[in-house]
Design brief:
The structure is a homodimer. By secondary structure, chain A is α+β, with helices and mostly antiparallel strands. Chain A contains eleven helices and 18 strands. In chain A, strands 1, 2, 3, 4, 5, 6, 7, 10 and 11 form a nine-stranded mixed beta sheet that branches. Chain A has a four-stranded antiparallel beta sheet with strand order 14-16-18-17. Chain A starts with 7 loop residues before the first helix and ends in a 6-residue tail after the last strand. Chain A has a domain of 245 residues: Aspartate Aminotransferase, domain 2 (3-Layer(aba) Sandwich), CATH 3.40.640.10. The relative contact order of chain A is 0.20. At the A-B interface, helix 2, helix 4, helix 5, strand 13 and helix 9 of A face helix 2, helix 4, helix 5, strand 13 and helix 9 of B. Chains A, B: It comes from Pelosinus propionicus DSM 13327. Chains A, B: Keywords: Aminotransferase, Pyridoxal phosphate, Transferase. Chains A, B: GO terms for molecular function: pyridoxal phosphate binding; transaminase activity.
Chain lengths: 389, 389
């Protein structure tokens, strides 16, 4: 095998060398319960505090705020719910447009539609796989105009209210550049940090830069609560409102049920928060192990033709949530061969999500030129990245 | 004390007699984990299957369908989510009206607004505390007109698409009478059976009569999953669609992420379903105990002035989820005294929910005369009803 000939079996060999031997199948990202999970969950069962009553929700929120540096963290039922409420509290209304990367998981875009708003797809850049702030700035110069304090799309006539970047596979987008764009065009910033717990941009945790930001603790994430998510914010008032609206907007009273507005039942059950507390204690160790695995992959694939392992951008420290094999330009045609060969060999891999503008319900949404997203869609392969590998 | 003089301390005495001695405080409805809860939850932790992968979600759905007699049960993240999707799949659209009892928990009504539809408040009857089908029939004769296959509100011009009764505290509404109204006026029936798992109407389980119906397994319910709910239906196609749309509408594929429509992340995590499986095994025993407690209350309060314990309607077998002390007409003025005295004595009690039309966000919604709901609101007090009491 030389650096010049693409060889699928060489990829399998290198993956096998990096991964534990003797396992019939290796998942993409499986949870690791090596801490106080049993203890805390059992306590919930023994005390009967599994639901909305119990100490773990409060503890989980405090520890999340402490870890991320956000003033307030609000635990919710999953990342999608966190996105929905964050968009709503940012002031996104029906018929507003929200700028969002074309390359993202469906939840980011679905949440925009829950507000009655319209996704407006933005291209990504290769060094982060996330939203490209410079390309966005140029694009807005062309299509946007400011009227008073609001930004409007000249073509559709609709208000553009917010930008919702997603830190792809844990790698932060270029937040300083993006914040500059937001300020210039009077756009609110919400970060979808579902994949980037443990990742920082220029030394400060992701999810700490937007007006509101969101985390996910789904079973495939760096830490899991079974299903769960959180809203982060540095605005105390928005934090209070997020807690209120995600718990049915009930005004506290010893026995009366008075709700002052339409609210949501998005609270995280205590038993799931207990799992989260135990997982969060192990996060620093998980991150060390994930970076070690990424390093191992980077080194091992350095001599393989036609492929490289994605490395964190210079301004970031990434959690390497899901490692990425990036096919070189002229090898994109082998993507499905690699996917088939790896999966057939018990090594779970997958391509990146189909671009959002290609899905039938979003095919008529506004979008800029997205050729980098198109390009990456054909070249990304995710490989096993569990912390215990 | 005679049957003629209202005496708050007599109520406290009778409650104390019915309830276990020596507890500093007795909650309204606390969960009971006396079965395989820990075994199943531990299995989730040991295998790492806590989230969307794992056998308990399937098992829980199968057992729920078997128990309720519904063709299909779909486990979701809570009862509110179940309501939202059931309304949507029934065809409720923006600007439709949905007939709903004025006396219900906020989730029933919030879910209508999530579809962009308008709640239209209906009165209840005293024998069920639920929607009054006869009063509704008279009202619709007055305000509704059929155009083609649809029913319209003559006053607002809006389509009335569905009726959404709620089986209050586990007591079924008069479903036969209600179904007759639905047929006559071309309305879809959705049952909010959040409180009535284990309750049957004329020998058939509640949640089995509507096009779609919903259950809740919140921490205060007869069985709990921490937080959770389910959609029930006898329509296989709607059941499939409910599963699909509550799991992000992803088309199954070995690795591709293709979503064919806007979906929701409403799936129940496996760890919560594990709890549900263990709880469901104990449900028959729970129901026996709950009926025994209700009987004890009914007997004990039979000699107390000004108050009676609510008994199931003749056509129903109720789960007696939350027992109700019903103040007699001339004793309604003592409601807050009883609430204060019981809560101050460590016996948790509460009034029924504030009527929906009195909440600011629903104050302009259409409604019929609701004087029975107004009457009951002033007379209902819920008393402790956990299965272990």
């Amino acid at each position: 095998m030389t650096k010049n000939n693409f060889d699928t079996s060489a990829i399998i060999d290198v993956l096998k060398k990096c991964l534990p031997a003797g396992k019939a199948s290796i998942g993409l990202h499986e949870p690791c319960f090596a801490g106080n999970e049993w203890k805390y969950v059992k306590e919930c069962l023994d005390t009967g505090w599994v639901s909305s009553v119990g100490k773990y929700v409060d503890q989980f929120e405090e520890k999340l705020a402490e870890y991320t540096g956000a003033k307030r963290a609000i635990a919710v039922v999953n990342g999608t719910a966190a996105l929905h409420i964050s968009l709503m509290l940012t002031g996104v209304e029906a018929d507003d447009e929200v700028l969002v990367p074309d390359l993202t998981f469906i939840a980011t875009v679905n949440a925009i539609t829950y507000c009655g708003a319209i996704p407006h797809f933005v291209d990504v850049e290769e060094r982060t796989m996330g939203l490209d702030p410079n390309k966005l700035a140029d694009y807005l110069l062309e299509i946007a105009e400011l009227r008073g304090t609001d930004c409007f799309n000249r073509h559709t006539g609709r208000r553009i209210k917010a930008v919702l970047p997603m830190h792809t596979f844990g790698h932060p987008v270029d937040l300083d550049a993006l914040i500059e764009v937001c300020q210039k065009f009077h756009l609110e910033l919400i970060e979808d940090a579902a994949e980037s717990l443990g990742s920082s941009y220029k030394g400060r945790h992701t999810g700490n830069w937007g007006k509101l930001s969101t985390l996910s603790f789904n079973g495939n994430k760096t830490i899991t609560t079974g299903g769960g998510g959180a809203i982060l914010t540095n605005d105390e008032e928005l934090g209070k409102m997020a807690k209120y609206i995600t718990t049915t907007a009930k005004v506290p009273h010893k026995w009366n049920f008075y709700h002052s507005q339409i609210g949501y039942n998005y609270r995280l059950p205590n038993i799931n928060a207990a799992l989260g507390c135990a997982q969060l204690e192990q996060l620093p160790d998980f991150l060390i192990r994930k970076r070690a695995l990424a390093k191992k992959y980077i080194d091992a694939f350095s001599s393989v033709a036609g492929i490289r392992v994605f490395e964190e951008p210079a301004f970031a420290q990434s959690n390497y949530w899901l490692n990425v094999l990036m096919l070189e330009d002229n090898c994109r045609k082998y993507r499905d061969d690699v996917l088939a060969a790896t999966n057939n060999n018990g090594i779970m891999t997958r391509p990146v999500w189909i671009l959002m503008h290609k899905l039938p319900m979003f095919s008529n949404c506004p979008k800029m030129d997205v050729h980098v997203a198109e390009d990456l869609e054909a070249r990304i392969i995710n490989i096993p990245s569990s912390v215990f590998l």
